[in-house]
Amino acid sequence: MDKTKSSVVKGIPGSPGIAIGKVFLIEEDFPVVLKKIPKSMIKKEISRLHNALSQVREEMYLEKHKILKVLGKEHAPLADVYLRILDDPILKKDVANRISEEGINAEHALSATIEKVVQSFEKIEDEYFNERKNDIQEVGKRILRHLMGSQRKYINEANADSTIVAHNLTPADTVALYEHKVSAFAIDIGSKTAHASLLAQGLEIPAVVGLKNITAIANNGDDVIVDGNQGLVIVNPDDETLENYRKEHEIEQQELYELKKLRNVAAETIDGHRVTLTGNIDSIKEVKSILDSGAEGVGLFRTEFLYMNRDKLPSEEEQYEIYSSIAQKVLPYSLTIRTIDLGGDKLAKFGFDDIVAEDNPFLGLRSLRLCLKYPEVFVVQLKAILRASAKGKIKVMFPMVTGLAEFRQAKKIFEETKEVLRKNIQDFDENIKLGAMIETPSAALTADAIAREADFLSIGTNDLIQYTLAVDRVNENVAFMYEPLHLSILRLLRHIIEATHSAAKLVGMCGEMAGDPAFTTILMGLGLDEFSVPPIAVPKIKKIIRSSSIADSKKLVQEIFGTDDYNTVVNLLRKPHQKG
C-alpha cells in the first residue's frame, strides 16, 4: 500500500481505548496581517469589531441552548465561561482603544491583546489558569473568524469513522462529539483533567490530548490510530502497525463484550471474599455510565463543577436538585458526595476579596480548610446534601483532611447544620454517614484517630502520593518519580487500612490507583473494602477481583513487604496471582 511518511506523536492519555479511522482536521490557522487604518476609518473599524463580538455572542447563546438540551444543565458552565470571556472589557474596550490609538486593523489589535493576556496567564503555575488561557485563545479565534470572514469546519460534518484532530475543542464541539459518536479525538492542548478529557471518559471514546503539534502533522483524510491507553497518535501507520492495532482493537472489543456480561454479578473473589465496587463521577450525565458499567453506586461525586465557570455561587436549591436526582437514580445503591474541593482562587471571583494570590496554591487555602474559613459557603452545600439524603442513600466525605482537629471542626459544622434543619422541620437522613478523605501524609499517619470519629475513610491516592513523594505528577521534569509502588506509599496504605479496621470501620479508595488493574490484587491483599473507579474501569477491575483469591492476594502482600527492592516488587506483581 502506498502511504505517505508515518508519524508517531506522544501526548497525554485523555481517555482509554483504541480507535482506527480517518483524520477529520479542524484547522485553526489565522494569518493575521498588520494594516494601518486612516483616522477617517477608525470608527468603521471599531464597528467591525463590535459586529464580530455580537455575532459570536449570538452563536454562543445558541450553543448554550443546545448544550442544555443535549448534555444537560450541569454542562452549561462550559458555554458560560466563553460568554464571560466575551463580555470582558479587554475584548471590547482594550481592543477598541488599541485600534484607535495605534491606527491598526481590528484583527491585529485583537491578536496583540489576546497574546498579552495569554502571556500573563503563562506566568501562573496552576492547571486551572492554564485551561483558562486556552479558553481565551479559543474565544479570540472565534472573533477573528468573523472579522476575516473565514469558516470553521464543524464536527457535524464528521461520521463514525472520523477521528477529530484539532488544536482544542469548544463547548459546541463537545455536543457534536456526543451527537455524531465520532470514533476518537486528538488535540494539541489540554490535560487529563481538562473538560474535553473528562467528557471523553464519560462517553467512553478514546482520546489523546496535549499533543502540541498534531494539527501541523496530520492532514485531512490521513489514516490515523488513536491509542488512548498509551497516549499515542500514529498518523499514516505502516501496514504492519495498522494490522497489529486492528488485532489489538478486535481483542479490546471482544474483551469489552465479555466484560459486559459481568454487569449484574458481584465483585467477589473465587474464595468468597466480597469487595464493593463503585464509580467516580463529575456530573449527573455520567450516572447512566455508572449503572451500565455494573458499579454498585457512586463512591465519589466531585462537586467542583457546580462552582466552576460561573458568576455566582450555586444556590442551595440548585445543589439539592442535583444531589437528590443522582441519589434517586442510583438506588438501591448509595451516593458518596465529596464536599467542595477547590482552591481559594476559584472563590475569589465570587467576591471574596480577602483571598490573595498564593505562591503555592497546592499547599495553601483549599478544600476543607477553605470551607472552614468560609462556613457560609460550606453550610449551603451541607444543607443541600442533607436535604437530598431524604431522597436516597447519601454519604458525605470531607476532602484534604490534615488531622483530627480539622475533621472535628468540620463535623461540628455538619452537626450544627443538621440542627438548623431540625428546627426548620426539614427532612434528612438522621443516620447519614460522614467520612474523611485521607490524601495527606499527616492524615495517613493519624488515620487511627480519624477513623474512630468518622464513619468511614476513603483514600485519595493522587494527592497522597504527590505530597508524600514531593512530586508534582503533571510536571514533566519529575513526573517519572510519581510511583504508587514506592515503599513509603505501600506502608502508608497498609497503615491506613489496618488503622481503619481496628476502629471497626470500612475504608475505600477513590484515587487513580484504585482504577488501575495493575494494583487491584495488591490492594485486595492489603484489605481494601471498596474500590471507587471511573465507569470505564469498573468491568476490568471486577474481572480481576472475580479471577483472584483473597488468600493469594494476602500472600502477595506478605512477599512484597518482605523486600525493599522496587524491581522485586514489580516482578512480584507480574507473577500470576489470578485464576487462569
Describe the structure.
The chain is of the alpha/beta class and 580 residues long. It folds into three domains: 7-28 and 153-237, Phosphohistidine domain (Glucose Oxidase, domain 1, 3-Layer(bba) Sandwich), CATH 3.50.30; 39-148, PtsI, HPr-binding domain (Enzyme I, Chain A, domain 2, Orthogonal Bundle); 266-574, Alpha-Beta Barrel (TIM Barrel), CATH 3.20.20. Helices cover 48% and strands 13% of the residues. It contains 23 helices and 16 strands. It has helices at residues 42-70, 77-86, 89-102, 106-122, 127-148, 171-180, 195-203, 214-217, 239-260, 287-293, 316-330, 344-348, 367-373, 375-388, 404-423, 441-445, 447-453, 461-469, 487-502, 520-526, 538-546, 550-560, 566-574; strands at residues 7-10, 12-15, 18-26, 162-166, 184-187, 207-209, 223-227, 232-235, 276-281, 298-302, 334-338, 393-398, 433-438, 456-459, 506-509, 530-533. An eight-stranded mixed β-sheet has the order 1-8-7-3-4-5-6-2. Strand 7 (223-227) and strand 8 form a beta hairpin. Helix 11 runs parallel beside helix 14. It is globular. It starts with 6 loop residues before the first strand and ends in a 6-residue tail after the last helix. The mean pLDDT is 86.
Spans of at least 5 consecutive residues with low confidence: none
Cross-sheet strand order for the largest sheet: 1-8-7-3-4-5-6-2
Any idea what the shape is? globular
> What is the straight-line distance between the termini?
40 Å
Radius of gyration using CA atoms only: 25 Å
- Integer average pLDDT: 86
Number of domains: 3
From the helix content, strand content and strand pairing, which structural class follows? alpha/beta
Query: Can you summarize the main beta sheet?
Result: 8 strands, mixed
